[in-house]
Amino acid sequence: MEAVADTISKIIKRFRLGDIKAETPEENARRQAEYERQKNLEYYQFETKNFLKKRSLFNQENALISEYKGIDENSPDTFRELAKRSVDVVRDFANQNMYTVILTGKAGTGKTMLTSCMLNKLNQETYLRCLFVSVPAMYDLVMSKFAKDSDKNIKKKQDRLYHLMNDIKEADVIALDDLGSETSLKSEIVEANQTFQDTLFKIGEIIQTKGLIISTNNSSSDFQEMYNSKITSRLLTKNPAHIFNFPESLEDKRIARR
């Protein structure tokens, strides 16, 4: 027995086990608080990275497949120059310098592709919450209230619209894709069209401190005819440095998707 006791004594002395002090209640509370903080941070980071994919509203599959790595020497020079300018926007947004940028030009010139590149870059390299919103798809949700459809389908779309508006409030950077194209779908019901205008106004109020990327086939003068001035003043920008003009020469010269 004495031999066992001596052995234990030597172990305690060797590893200084006798110096280990019991954790005080205050120390335990601090350790638990730090653990909870770390878990919450990890959860926030996970949710932020998945925000773009889970919360975005799409009108077509693979809308966000394009990345900057798909732009190379085979891409049109004009598009590469636009992409280079857009990297400066991404850098500004990453540094919390938020404003509105407008990508304007005919359909098929690469506006949605460049939007995808910008959002994916931000999502990969920052913890900003990015959101892609197809305006025609949003228009469909808004108009569902006036559609001749089953109560179940109407409720489903109205619920999606409700969550989308909350997601816009929660996001740091929002892309409104194909703004203006929904006017070709205008309803004959005056109240329905006014409801959509009201929705755009609400978004305009929400995004005042956020980064906004608008892609459109329309010009600023077109918007003045389409929307109430209270909407255009909140959504659009007059800063020429923040307006990206996609020339007709880019039409249908789409970037290779990788």
In words, what does this structure look like?
This protein is 53% helix and 10% strand. The chain contains 9 helices and 5 strands. It has a 5-stranded parallel β-sheet. The longest helix is centred in the N-terminal third of the chain and has 31 residues, at 25-55. It is globular.
Question: How is this fold's topology laid out?
Answer:
Layout: H1 2-15, H2 25-55, H3 77-94, E1 100-105, H4 111-125, E2 130-134, H5 135-143, H6 151-170, E3 173-177, H7 190-206, E4 211-216, H8 220-226, H9 229-235, E5 243-246
Parallel strand pairs: 1-4, 1-5, 2-3, 3-4
Helix pairs in contact: 3-4, 5-6, 7-9
Strand order of the largest sheet: 2-3-4-1-5
Low-confidence stretches: none
Span between termini: 73 Å
Instruction: Quote the beta fraction.
Output: 5-15%
Which H/E pattern describes the elements? HHHEHEHHEHEHHE
Shape type: globular
Question: In short, what is this structure?
Answer:
By secondary structure, the protein is an alpha/beta fold.
Throw out a few tags for this protein:
258 residues, alpha/beta, 5-stranded parallel beta sheet, 9 helices, 5 strands, globular
